[in-house]
């Protein structure tokens, strides 16, 4: 287990063990590991853990990885055959792709011609293989000890069919969009599965979004129906979702709503592997959210496989992912990935710190599988959404996992459908803060600003060289933006928008976004979205938003605001600006700091120099760089003078 992995030219090779000190799982990491600048300290899976793991060694990983790169068609076909297909896919073209804009439109297809249904594969297939009485979903309510409930695979299937019949009855057909605006109730995955069952395309909108954001998404995808509930409890608050939807429907001039009793059997609609499964809006570097489109077959195969290996899934596991189904993690790793594996999944309605910060561990103990001791039921921990810093990693490992559980720090994106760079917990040693190595079939490359692939120890822009089954196929209604954003910056590659470095042992270290996207507690927010919300305020003339480092949230939103001529700054106005952002996007996007700006640093052509604003926001005033190209360099001094006022 001390073998090291090295990633060279897209092929992983085994290198001689480095001179690193190893810590075997089971030993706590001391705080002086934090001082280890070269990340030499490895956390090695115990022999017993590895022995029982699906991927027990670097060699096994390398063997499978090598095949996945050299023979992707064979590798993925073998896995895909484990699912139910009404019609097989075209065996002579398991996938086809053009990722190089210079050779024509970007185009990705997997398992084309195959017909299947992901809802059937999540439910009917599990029931038919004899697991109908296994618990599919445990639901834990916001208030401890109140209303917890569960559904077996049989019961879940019936509930999904009822809703599918209802949707058909009100005229929803294959290919129609359905917007789902629900909190973490069992009805949320039920709705997703019901849509998939009849071939409708779900678009879940996170229930923390405001009426305006919801309206924007409704206008873009033009759903036949919007599904919501009256209200949700989150922490001590009750949020009236239906009122928000009414507001949104007013804004988008549509109508609809109700969910009664319908028959518990519903024939599935067989769809092509490349028929759309869902749209999920995500933030980019311009104001308009992007409708990321995922299709059926490849997404199904990819989420199921990544779930299985990254969490070393065992049928006796009880699995809990704290993400909300309003985000991609909730799509791939609350709903589809686990259910495709026949797993028992916990869904939690509320906030992780309600009634207090012990709630998560309360839930872990409550749903423990066999053992009776606190957190002893934990086997594997997961982390996602932002770089986990080594000290948070250590806390997670030592305190939560009792220095016993491997951590799968999974790097991926809404666009990638599933995990891309992730530990396989039994296969190789971990380094606190590194997402480690690529998943099967994924060829990450790090390029410099000219798009030249860097080798060995390096740092640059993270791209991906080929396609993988879970890749998104387009941005809804805007294939041109899809190409411009992801495939034009570095022709021939998919560009992730992230910075990344690779150390001498081949481990990957994600360093955060390199574009105008901010990551606040794992919520992805475009600076332009917050700016347009701010400037919609009648007293705001101009706004520029940057991200600043934040100890708890990863990044916080910092807004420079120029007011309309003659309007004085006041605390009341600051509050009203923040409120505007909350109303237009949602509370999670509210700026932490408003910095009054008499003017913004702009180039002579009028482009805001965000580089300078970032330095001012993080008070790195010695690193402002060259300001002489600004139209008015004195603005910088004025901003600095106002920094702490
Ligand atoms: C961005 C994607 C993927 C589900 C949740 C977020 C950042 C994601 C990690 C990680 C470092 C990470 C990246 C990425 N990110 N996972 N393990 N380590 N950074 O999905 O909203 O599409 O955001 O989240 O910056 O580009 P998303």
TrEMBL record:
<dbReference type="InterPro" id="IPR020845">
    <property type="entry name" value="AMP-binding_CS"/>
</dbReference>
<feature type="domain" description="AMP-binding enzyme C-terminal">
    <location>
        <begin position="529"/>
        <end position="607"/>
    </location>
</feature>
<dbReference type="InterPro" id="IPR045851">
    <property type="entry name" value="AMP-bd_C_sf"/>
</dbReference>
<dbReference type="Pfam" id="PF13193">
    <property type="entry name" value="AMP-binding_C"/>
</dbReference>
<keyword id="KW-0436">Ligase</keyword>
<dbReference type="InterPro" id="IPR025110">
    <property type="entry name" value="AMP-bd_C"/>
</dbReference>
<dbReference type="GO" id="GO:0005524">
    <property type="term" value="F:ATP binding"/>
</dbReference>
<keyword id="KW-0547">Nucleotide-binding</keyword>
<dbReference type="InterPro" id="IPR032387">
    <property type="entry name" value="ACAS_N"/>
</dbReference>
<dbReference type="Pfam" id="PF16177">
    <property type="entry name" value="ACAS_N"/>
</dbReference>
<dbReference type="InterPro" id="IPR000873">
    <property type="entry name" value="AMP-dep_synth/lig_dom"/>
</dbReference>
<feature type="domain" description="AMP-dependent synthetase/ligase">
    <location>
        <begin position="130"/>
        <end position="368"/>
    </location>
</feature>
<feature type="domain" description="AMP-dependent synthetase/ligase">
    <location>
        <begin position="374"/>
        <end position="467"/>
    </location>
</feature>
<comment type="similarity">
    <text>Belongs to the ATP-dependent AMP-binding enzyme family.</text>
</comment>
<dbReference type="GO" id="GO:0005737">
    <property type="term" value="C:cytoplasm"/>
</dbReference>
<feature type="domain" description="Acetyl-coenzyme A synthetase N-terminal">
    <location>
        <begin position="61"/>
        <end position="122"/>
    </location>
</feature>
<dbReference type="InterPro" id="IPR042099">
    <property type="entry name" value="ANL_N_sf"/>
</dbReference>
<keyword id="KW-0067">ATP-binding</keyword>
<keyword id="KW-0963">Cytoplasm</keyword>
<dbReference type="GO" id="GO:0003987">
    <property type="term" value="F:acetate-CoA ligase activity"/>
</dbReference>
<protein>
    <recommendedName>
        <fullName>acetate--CoA ligase</fullName>
        <ecNumber>6.2.1.1</ecNumber>
    </recommendedName>
</protein>
<dbReference type="Pfam" id="PF00501">
    <property type="entry name" value="AMP-binding"/>
</dbReference>
<dbReference type="GO" id="GO:0006085">
    <property type="term" value="P:acetyl-CoA biosynthetic process"/>
</dbReference>
């Amino acid at each position: 287990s001390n073998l090291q992995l090295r990633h060279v030219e897209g092929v992983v090779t085994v290198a001689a063990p480095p001179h690193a000190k190893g810590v075997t799982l089971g030993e706590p990491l001391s705080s002086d590991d934090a001082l280890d600048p070269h990340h030499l300290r490895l956390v090695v899976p115990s022999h017993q853990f590895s022995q029982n793991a699906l991927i027990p060694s670097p060699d096994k990983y390398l063997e499978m990885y090598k095949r996945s790169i050299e023979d992707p068609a064979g590798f993925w076909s073998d896995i895909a055959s484990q699912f139910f297909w009404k019609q097989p896919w075209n065996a002579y073209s398991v996938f086809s792709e053009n990722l190089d804009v210079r050779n024509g439109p970007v185009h990705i297809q997997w398992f084309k011609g195959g017909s299947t249904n992901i809802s059937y594969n999540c439910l009917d297939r599990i029931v038919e293989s004899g697991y109908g009485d296994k618990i599919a979903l445990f639901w834990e309510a916001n208030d401890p000890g109140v209303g917890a409930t569960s559904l077996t695979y049989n019961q879940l299937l019936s509930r999904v069919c009822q809703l599918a019949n209802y949707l058909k009855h009100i005229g929803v057909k294959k290919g129609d969009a359905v917007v789902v605006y629900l909190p973490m109730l069992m009805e949320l995955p039920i709705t997703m599965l019901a849509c998939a069952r009849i071939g409708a395309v779900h678009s879940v909108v996170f229930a923390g979004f405001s009426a305006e954001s919801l309206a924007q998404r409704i206008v873009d995808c033009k759903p036949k129906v919007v599904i919501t509930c009256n209200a949700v409890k989150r922490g001590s608050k009750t949020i009236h979702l239906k009122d928000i939807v009414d507001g949104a429907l007013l804004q988008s001039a549509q109508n609809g709503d109700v969910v009664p009793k319908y028959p518990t059997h519903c024939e599935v609609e067989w769809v092509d592997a490349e028929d759309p499964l869902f749209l999920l809006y995500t933030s980019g570097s311009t104001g308009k959210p992007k409708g990321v489109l995922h299709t059926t077959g490849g997404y199904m195969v990819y989420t199921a496989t990544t779930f299985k290996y990254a969490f070393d899934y065992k049928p006796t596991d009880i699995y809990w992912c704290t993400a909300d189904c309003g985000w991609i993690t909730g799509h791939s790793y609350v709903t589809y990935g686990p259910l495709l594996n026949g797993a028992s999944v916990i869904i939690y309605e509320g906030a992780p710190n309600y009634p207090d910060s012990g709630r998560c561990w309360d839930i872990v103990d409550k749903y423990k599988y066999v053992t009776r001791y606190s957190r002893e039921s934990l086997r594997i921990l997961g982390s996602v959404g932002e770089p986990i810093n080594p000290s948070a990693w250590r806390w997670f490992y030592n305190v939560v996992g009792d220095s016993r559980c491997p951590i799968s720090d999974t790097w991926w994106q809404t666009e990638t459908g599933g995990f891309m760079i992730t530990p396989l917990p039994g296969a190789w040693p971990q380094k606190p803060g590194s997402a480690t190595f690529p998943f099967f079939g994924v060829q990450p490359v790090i390029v410099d600003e000219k798009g030249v692939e860097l080798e060995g120890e390096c740092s640059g822009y993270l791209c991906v060289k080929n396609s993988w089954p879970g890749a998104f196929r387009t941005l809804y209604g805007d294939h041109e933006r899809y190409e411009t954003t992801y495939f034009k910056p570095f022709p021939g590659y998919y560009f992730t928008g992230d910075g990344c470095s690779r150390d001498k042992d081949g481990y990957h270290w994600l360093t955060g976004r390199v574009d105008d996207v901010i990551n606040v507690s794992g919520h992805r927010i475009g600076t332009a979205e917050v700016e347009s919300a701010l400037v919609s305020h009648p007293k705001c003339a101009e706004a520029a938003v940057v991200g600043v480092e934040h100890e708890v949230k990863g990044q916080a939103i910092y807004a420079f605001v120029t007011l309309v001529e003659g309007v004085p700054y006041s605390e009341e106005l600051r509050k009203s600006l923040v409120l505007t952002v909350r109303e237009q996007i949602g509370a999670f996007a509210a700026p932490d700091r408003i910095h009054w700006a008499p003017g913004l640093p702009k180039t002579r052509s009028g482009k805001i120099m965000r580089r300078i604003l970032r330095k001012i926001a993080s008070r790195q005033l010695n690193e402002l760089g060259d300001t002489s190209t600004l139209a008015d360099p004195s603005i910088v001094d004025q901003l600095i003078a106002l920094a702490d006022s």
